[in-house]
Amino acid sequence: MTHTQAIPTASVAEDFRRSPVVRNAISAVIGELRARQSSITAVRGPRSAESRQSYERLLKLAAETRGRALFYPYLGSGLGHGPFVELADGSVKLDMITGIGVHFFGHSDPELTGVALEAALNDTVQQGHLMANTEAIQLGETLLTEAKRGSRLEHVFLCNSGAMANENALKVCLQKHAPASRILAFAHCFMGRTWAMSQIGDSAANRQGLPLNVLVDYMPFYDPAVARRMSAGDASGATRFIDMAVSHLRQSIERYPGQHACFIFELVQGEGGFNTAPPEFHRELMKVCKDAGIAVWDDEVQTFGRTERMFCYDALGLGEYVDVCCVGKMSQVCAALFTKAYNPKPGLLSGTFLSTADAVHVGRRIIERLRDGDYYGEQGRIARHHRAFSQQVRSLAQRHPEWFPPSPEVPDIVGGFGGMMRFSPFGGKKEPMIKLCHNLFEDGVISFYCGHGPFHVRFLPPLGVMEEALWPTVFSIVEKSMSRTASEIK
Fold it and tell me: Looking at per-residue confidence, does 440 or 232 come out higher?
């Protein structure tokens, strides 16, 4: 019997949720949802000229309210059907970015909608750390059960954003290793947009005008193009690059002895370009950290659930080294997980909000679906989708090699890991990449870009509901948009 099975259920609330009136009402809503979303099955334009005009007024209001225009003219209607999403003007688009990876199970998933409706019966909208309901404990245990399979992680602190999960992880590491105050991080990393995380993230634009008080030493992330050039004799380029990175890390530790609290590992870099590295690259750096008494902090806010295992550290065989780990996005409720040795003192972690009741319920169900579904492993759903995506990109490049010119900065036109997918046309130049993203949106595919040079088109598709047979439809639109972009940049 698990701990959550032991939670008492003899309550008025449980009787209310199990009431036939309530169950029938939820079933009726889900039935109506299925009927309505059945017409959302293909890309289409606005329903009418009037709806488009009304939509333009909403976009103008959004720009005035925010102080700047939206990156995309995206305002959802609140309804969708798997990978298809309806906008407020009645148009429909294929969502290949899913809120930067939040909506792995797409739009208006009937089961998750039902879970959210049940969550709406809670006595409060927000769960808190002072006053939480039983569902928050159940979510934490469900997450930890999966985390413990390949790591020493023992405890979890839930919160309502990835940036706050990282803030909490940073505090845990700093407290454990006080008075050490320096941070080690990879070049091109992204940690979030709080004050501290903006300083750690390797993007000058994200901290412009901010006073700086976080001391960060940046290490080189694995670069296959550089590794290829480093090949010589019997030593492979990968081995030489790893040796160089380890030497760089040792130099930083020797320069500031005893002053580093943690090394933040993005096992797959997100905003930095969906950059990947062989497991031994991370492993050798983690070993140095262990020898030096520096915390290994694994940031999986974007990778969680999306690679070939639920946790990327499991996919790369690195769980034994991890002291602190952050998850988010797909999990709906974000979290910092840590080993027994890093369990913080009372008062360090707290907050008014834990997250919303529906996020807690839906997040737990998502983890259960990931656990029980055919998603992971070399033949799992995620790996199959990545192969199908790669095949489409390479086929497109064969038909239009002029769109994928050779570039020393782009060793491979397709990359990423699992559900983190990117392709690199136009030599990885930023201006045509952003233009392509906008053209894709107009033509019916929502994507985004990533990287700091080279730049890439980024996909985080809803692989929980998307069928492999849909990829040719996606890339027929990609080909149309790229043709238009190629003619425009000439």
Answer: 440
Q: How would you list the strands of the sheet with 456-459, edge to edge?
A: 414-417, 420-423, 456-459, 448-450
Please tell me whether residue 326 adopts helix, strand or coil conformation: strand
Please provide the average confidence, as pLDDT, over all residues in the chain: 96
Q: Which amino acid is at 116?
A: A
Under 8 Å between Cβ of 93 and 481 = no
End-to-end CA gap in the chain? 66
pLDDT in tens, 103-141: 999 999 999 999 999 999 999 999 999 999 999 999 999
**DSSP at 470:** G
Q: Is the pLDDT of residue 6 over 80?
A: no
pLDDT at 231: 80
DSSP string over 323-341: SEEEE-GGGSSEEEEEEGG
DSSP state of 468: G
Q: Which domains does the chain have, with CATH numbers?
A: 19-95 (no CATH), 126-372 (3.40.640.10), 381-489 (3.90.1150.10)
Say how many CA atoms lie within 13 Å of 302 toward its Cβ: 30
User: pLDDT digits over 432-475, tens only?
Assistant: 999 999 999 999 999 999 999 999 999 999 999 999 999 999 99
CA 376-265-339 angle, to 5 degrees, is 80
Structure tokens at 442: 């107009």
Of 471, 273, 274, 485, give the one whose Cα is nearest residue 400: 485
**Measured CA distances, 182 to 34, 200, 258, 284 (Å):** 53, 10, 9, 20
If one counts every other C-beta atom within 10 angstroms of the C-beta of residue 227, the result is 21
- Is the omega angle on the peptide bond into residue 211 within 30 degrees of 0, that is, cis? no
The answer, yes or no, to whether residue 235 has pLDDT greater than 80, is no
